[in-house]
Amino acid sequence: MKAVAGALIPILFAAQMLFGSSDLFAMARRPSESEDFPKLVEGWRYTVGDCYRLALRRMETVGIRQEDIETAKAQMFQAASEALGDIDFNMNAFHQDAPKPGTQASDTGGGSLAGTFAARHRRDREFTFNQPLFQGFKSVGAILGAGSLKGQRVEEKLRTQQLIFLDVSKAFYAVLKQKEEVEINKGIIVLFKERIAELEEREKIGRSRTSEVVNAQANMKTIEADLEQSYGKLANAEFTLEFLTGIPVKADQLADDSEGIDTVSELSDYLTLSEQLPSIKASEKAVKTALQGIIVAQSGLWPNLSLVHNQYVKREGFQSGFDWDLTLSADVPLFRGGENIGNIKEAYSFWKKAKLTYSLVKRQVNLQVKQAFQDWQTSKNRLRALAEAVEASEENYRLQNEDYSRSLVSNLDVLQALEVLHNNKRTANKVRYTLKENFRRLQVAAGEIPGDIE
Question: 3-class SS at 327?
Fold first, then answer.
């Protein structure tokens, strides 16, 4: 038994060095129950960071990526088993019919070679140690490849989380945008009602025609239809945010804490930052994994050396005096019908494809950062111009109202000014939240997720 314990210690130590004690005994632990997702807190206003944290706990895609990491860990154990060898405890109980009287088997003694094979019962117990000595670097390649795969899965999970942040941001700003759209339509309807009331008063004294009142009412009904559409879009945006976060958050419970959207770093800074993007790192590790695959495939051309040691606890018959035996085996591959060459070519092709994918991902990231930066800059300039347009439209509507009261312009001019004001407000609102979305998209494209919400 001391020999068994002595053989187990280095193997367990090597496994712990490879995977860590927490991973080594992870299979022995019962998975804990998932925690309940946070409920709505009375009076709490949720920021985009709050919604992101809720989404990380809710979204199944994060859990799927985590299981990919666990699968890669399992593959590391499987690869290590090739190098660490096997330990088995075997028990055999052999039973056979009694020899027929008068035969040679019936005349043998129990302690001789013939007597051992003629015995009706024979038992043995032993520990078997099977240790591979050389496999053409197959084990090394498999372990390193599994390690690179694990790193790749970790980076893919990080990128998935970043993309979830982008989805949450879009849903978050969509809710706020539709909420503002509702308020804009309500405000314009109030102006129309004031306008209609004034026209009706003027109609009573003969200073306005009935058609002017009807025209204003028709325009107001169009805005009321837009208002109903805004309510529907607001509800759908809230449903999307609820899908991501797992809780029914309403527009009034959101707090827009966007900061720094007007001034960002230079494009070159974002391009430099994007070089550490998880998607790039994942592709880089995929190249390393594929390279180790070539080493594993090439191992088929090398001979295999293995050592098998049996430590007997109990033996019966003529072998009862032997406590152990040792077998050294060498397997030299001579011909496999092209299997090894095919495996090597296939592994080499996977490696080349991984390198091309890595190059493509880097160029795509570069393009995405440039486009996101340009979109942010464009929406920023548009918002500045539209803010001035809204201010000018409000002034124009006020002046048209005054001129109409002095009979200098027609009612059509006033309604047209009101329509321009409505359109400019809606467009400015849309661009304002497009700017916020573009800011978040630029952050995600470069991998710059704010530290307080990671």
Answer: strand
